[in-house]
Specification:
Layout (H helix, E strand, L loop, with lengths): L1 H12 L2 H4 L5 E3 L2 E2 H20 L7 H10 L21 H16 L4 H9 L13 H20 L17
Antiparallel strand pairs: 1-2
Helix pairs in contact: 1-4, 3-4, 3-7, 4-6, 4-7, 5-6, 6-7
């Protein structure tokens, strides 16, 4: 799993701007970088399960889209921000911000763009995932967000392991 993530996402994981995601908290005490890596891993697990039923997907795009789905580059908990949680807009706006930032820093194909901009469905009802990979990342994101919020606050999950996919 980790090898596939490093293989498909080497340019992303080694980019200096991507490293800043480790400084922003996402859910509980989990950074945006950790969350994105978990979503990529969970997405690959879903894809592997689907292969058993002869349902295939583009793994490269799935991993890259998962790594960049929350590439919004700000602390959404900061109450002074226009799009903060306090103002209630982050969930509705960060996917487009992530796509804008990712398009600036990386060369993206159509599947990767679809994953990034539509991963907040069903919160964003008008942004329905348009490909299998976007549906997988959307589901993986919801699952990881739930697990992080419920079990990874204040060190509640003793088995939590940090991964470093950088310097591949």
């Amino acid at each position: 799993m980790e090898e596939r993530i490093r293989n498909y996402g080497a340019d992303i994981l080694n980019h200096e701007t991507y490293a800043t995601l480790a400084t922003y908290m996402q859910h509980g005490n989990v950074s945006v970088m950790e969350h994105s890596m978990r979503v990529a891993e969970t997405g690959l697990r879903i894809a592997d399960w689907m292969k058993k039923y002869n349902i295939n997907c583009h793994e490269r795009e799935l991993v890259r889209g998962a790594l960049l789905h929350d590439y919004f580059l700000y602390d959404w908990h900061e109450t002074t921000l226009k799009y903060s949680i306090k103002n209630g807009f982050h969930g509705f706006t960060h996917a487009r911000t992530a796509l804008k930032n990712a398009s600036r820093d990386y060369e993206l194909n159509e599947i990767e763009r679809d994953i990034i901009v539509k991963h907040m469905f069903p919160l964003n009802l008008t942004a329905v995932p348009g490909c299998r990979e976007a549906w997988i990342v959307t589901m993986a994101d919801k699952y990881c967000s739930l697990m992080e919020t419920l079990t990874m606050r204040n060190g509640m999950n003793k088995r939590r392991r940090k991964r470093n996919f950088r310097n591949v």
